[in-house]
DNA sequence: AGGCACACTTAGAACTTCATAA
DNA sequence: TTATGAAGTTCTAAGTGTGCCT
């Protein structure tokens, strides 16, 4: 009922890989290439201009640019990590990929050292000249091509943006005068190349959790049935437990044990000697008090709520922003985590431990030397103030449960996060270009004489096919027992030479990140299966499946196949490509808006299933389901009543033979029909809700799907001309519509709803196009607001601004 | 080649606000 | 108007991956 169904669904329709192979087959690469230039900022420009017909010119241009940048970089940074780019060519294959990939430019693994920004600070607010010129060219070209042109509005100063909490640029971190300023388009600027993340950073430091307030006298704690007044410290920790009394956590042994141990540490020696058994503790008065308190908060008058809101806004205005390189940027988490009881996920050995209160003395501040340093609260000191512009965080502290470091960082809408996000998708797109070769290689590696290579190849196959996470090793006993691909153990895998009529079925069952269960039965190729059998030979349940492999070995190998390639890029790539393919498949331009949105969500769901993004069914789920079921039952009753009436009306009509009774039969028939339709709708709604019961769409939307794919859905574009239709030997069809390549799987065409009778028909192996095929590429005209909410639009502002209607991932 | 520190992304749960049906 | 559920937002845990040291 869980992943099983879902994964099969995905397997059968959602994921159609193998585009590169097909492209090669029909010479697609030769005819059109979506080349993104090596360095990141170049890629951006390509993004704007990838329609250019004059590829050669463009290439030259890029090349020159790049050379220039490289020289610049060299001269400035003698110790630049150029050496890193020179990778060993272990075999011809690798180098082949690279050559093809890099196109001779050597895709600088540039995340860390993007293009040099050698402009003055005060120039920052302006669009770089270079880019401006290029843009004008582009505008011209576009005009020539009579393409949709959004530079028109882009080039001239834009209409005032509607957002009130605009970036106030130019050092205007003073009180925000209500002068709506233009949103800063960082994506139109060049990026820094020297590995520094900023040049200037000023902020006010974090906001600390409010100090503990003692409970009123009438809220008492009982031990062994007797009232007991607790010391302030012990009381505070007790309230943490009391607040969680309704939570399942407090029934768990480990939680209680850990809590009690840590609680006792906070007690006075007197308390310690008295309180020796958690079971004798009675927190109910405390619990009731907090419940009443939150109830009272809900019941607050409008004015009070408003006051609170304003107070909060003031705090956000003061602490929620920083000044980074002349731009006011939102901070993601400017509040220090308050003390409480640790809530680990799954079977966490440390659940219930006391998360201690963070004080200024624990905080390391990071900011510019020449900025106004944040002031610690009166009478306190920071642990340290440093000026490290190689990192993005503003403040950090070490947490006491795992000893890990926590950071205060910027909001996803910030330049620093956005650039990284954009770059992530560009890396995934580069993978797209060489994924088929990588696949060919790992298939080849299944036959290797060396065990470690075969393990690597099979693991990579899983990561690619199933979008598994890499699976770093974890310290035992420090956290819940969860695994990813490289850390899979024998107990997580079952091999079935035959199952449900399929050969070579691998059954995976393990807890992944956040202790979310992954369950899937996958038919695999014989060679994979045989390899797995070999890997499992003579092993205990608790042994690693891939004993000669870990993530660092795997990633090193991937790095050799493509610059910047790591295991997680496959997840991004497969998620995004799946969305795009699903959208192409589900597209039905005649649908109305809700239907289109439903289709979009379905495409999104396919990705969520692929990535195994699950959620606990909402608390209210059962209830709301029951409500719906009640409606359905009521409807059913109505129907049976209506049917009865119809029956008797029919009998009447038979007996009476008159016009009136005949008419009555008709009316009753209609009523039954109408009710049945209503019932159907309700049932569909119920199915839909049920289907989404434990699937979470948000994570993939936010982290895996190239937003430009979704953005492209907003345009209603003209029909496209079909250029070619081709069948590949592996049963895919390619439909080439102008420069779009749309691939389909045979069975998908035959059975998938959007295709049925619409797009293609099959006649004894010959594919024929119907006129409707032209519609395939018509984009949907979905308003972006229907896909992304406000926060998401802020995060993806770069994509919304730059992607045009025929964006291809 | 393995361990560790660190930085940063990805993740679902919990909480808050908004929209809509009763 | 109020109650309810959905949508939006916040929170922080739990991953990935790099680079340094041994």
Describe this structure in words.
With 809 residues, the protein is of the alpha+beta class. It is 45% helix and 11% strand. The chain is built from 28 helices and 20 strands. It has a four-stranded mixed β-sheet, with no helix packed on it. A three-stranded antiparallel β-sheet has the order 1-5-6. The protein is globular. The structure holds a DNA duplex (22 and 22 nucleotides).
Strand order of the biggest β-sheet: 10-9-11-12
**Average pLDDT for all residues:** 73
Question: Beta-sheet strand percentage?
Answer: 5-15%
Rg for CA atoms: 31 Å
Question: Structural class of the secondary elements?
Answer: alpha+beta
N-to-C CA distance: 32 Å
Kindly summarize this structure in a few lines.
This protein is of the alpha+beta class. 45% of the residues lie in helices and 11% in strands.
């Amino acid at each position: 009922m869980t992943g099983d169904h879902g994964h099969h669904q995905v397997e059968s329709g959602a994921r159609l890989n193998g585009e590169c192979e097909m492209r090669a087959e029909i010479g697609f690469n030769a005819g059109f290439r979506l080349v993104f230039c090596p360095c990141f900022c170049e890629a951006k420009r390509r993004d704007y201009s990838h329609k250019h017909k004059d590829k050669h010119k463009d290439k030259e241009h890029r090349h020159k640019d790049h050379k220039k940048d490289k020289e610049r970089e060299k001269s400035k940074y003698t110790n630049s990590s150029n050496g890193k780019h020179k990778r060993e060519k272990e075999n011809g294959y690798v180098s082949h990929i690279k050559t093809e990939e890099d196109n001779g430019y050597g895709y600088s693994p540039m995340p860390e050292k993007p293009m040099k920004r050698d402009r003055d600070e005060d120039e920052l607010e302006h669009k770089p000249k270079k880019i401006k010129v290029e843009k004008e060219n582009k505008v011209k070209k576009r005009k020539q091509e009579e393409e949709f042109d959004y530079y028109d509005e882009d080039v001239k100063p834009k209409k005032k943006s509607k957002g009130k909490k605009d970036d106030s640029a130019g050092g205007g971190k003073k009180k925000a005068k209500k002068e709506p300023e233009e949103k800063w388009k960082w994506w139109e600027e060049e990026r820094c190349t020297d590995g520094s993340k900023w040049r200037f950073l000023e902020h006010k430091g974090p906001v600390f959790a409010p100090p503990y307030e003692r409970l009123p006298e009438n809220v008492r704690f009982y031990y062994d049935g007797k009232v007991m007044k607790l010391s302030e410290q012990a009381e505070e920790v007790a309230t943490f437990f009391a607040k969680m009394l309704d939570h399942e956590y407090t029934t768990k042994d480990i939680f209680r044990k850990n809590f009690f141990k840590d609680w006792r540490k906070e007690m006075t020696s007197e308390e310690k000697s008295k309180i020796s058994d958690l079971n004798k503790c009675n927190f109910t008065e405390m619990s009731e008090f907090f419940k009443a308190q939150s109830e009272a908060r809900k019941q607050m008058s409008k004015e009070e709520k408003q006051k609170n809101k304003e107070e909060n806004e003031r705090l956000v205005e003061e602490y929620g922003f920083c000044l980074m390189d002349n731009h006011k940027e939102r901070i993601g988490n400017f509040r220090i985590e308050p003390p409480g009881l640790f809530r680990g996920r799954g079977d966490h050995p440390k659940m219930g431990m006391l998360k201690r209160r963070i004080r200024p003395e624990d905080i390391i501040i990071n900011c510019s030397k020449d900025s106004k340093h944040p002031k610690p609260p009166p009478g306190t000191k920071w642990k340290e103030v440093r000026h490290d512009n190689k990192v993005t965080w503003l403040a950090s502290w070490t947490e006491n449960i795992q000893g890990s470091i926590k950071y205060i960082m910027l909001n996803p809408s910030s330049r620093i996060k956005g650039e990284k996000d954009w770059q992530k998708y560009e890396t995934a797109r580069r993978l797209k270009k060489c994924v088929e070769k990588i696949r060919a290689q790992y298939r080849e590696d299944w036959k290797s004489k060396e065990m470690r290579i075969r393990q690597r190849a099979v693991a990579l196959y899983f990561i690619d096919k199933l979008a598994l996470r890499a699976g770093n090793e974890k310290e035992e006993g420090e956290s819940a027992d969860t695994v990813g691909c490289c850390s899979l153990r024998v107990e997580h895998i079952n091999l079935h030479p035959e199952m449900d009529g399929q050969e070579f079925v691998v059954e995976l069952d393990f807890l992944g990140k956040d202790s979310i269960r992954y369950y899937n039965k996958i038919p695999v190729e014989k060679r994979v299966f045989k390899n797995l059998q070999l890997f499992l030979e003579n092993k205990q349940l608790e042994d690693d499946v891939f004993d000669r492999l870990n993530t660092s070995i795997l990633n090193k190998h991937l790095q050799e196949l493509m610059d910047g390639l790591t295991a997680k890029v496959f997840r991004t790539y497969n998620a995004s490509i799946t969305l795009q393919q699903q959208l192409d498949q589900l597209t039905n331009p005649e649908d109305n808006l809700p239907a289109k949105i439903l289709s979009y969500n379905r495409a999104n769901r396919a990705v969520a299933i692929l990535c195994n993004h699950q959620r606990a069914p909402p608390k209210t789920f059962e209830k709301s389901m029951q409500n719906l079921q009640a409606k359905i039952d009521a409807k059913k009753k109505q129907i049976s009543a209506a049917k009865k009436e119809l029956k008797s009306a029919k009998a009447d009509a038979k007996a009476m033979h008159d016009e009136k009774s005949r008419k009555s039969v008709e009316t009753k028939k209609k009523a039954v029909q109408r009710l049945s339709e209503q019932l159907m709708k309700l049932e569909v709604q119920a199915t839909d809700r049920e289907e989404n019961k434990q699937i979470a769409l948000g994570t993939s939307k936010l982290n895996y799907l190239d937003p430009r794919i979704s953005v492209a859905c907003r345009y209603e574009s003209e029909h496209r001309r079909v250029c070619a239709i081709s069948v590949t030997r592996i049963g895919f069809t390619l439909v080439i519509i102008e420069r779009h390549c749309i691939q389909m799987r045979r069975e998908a065409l035959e059975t998938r709803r959007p295709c049925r009778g619409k797009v293609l028909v099959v006649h004894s192996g010959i594919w024929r196009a119907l006129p409707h095929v032209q519609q395939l590429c018509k984009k949907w005209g979905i308003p972006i607001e229907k896909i992304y909410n406000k926060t998401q639009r802020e995060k993806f502002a770069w994509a919304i601004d730059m992607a045009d209607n025929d964006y291809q991932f």
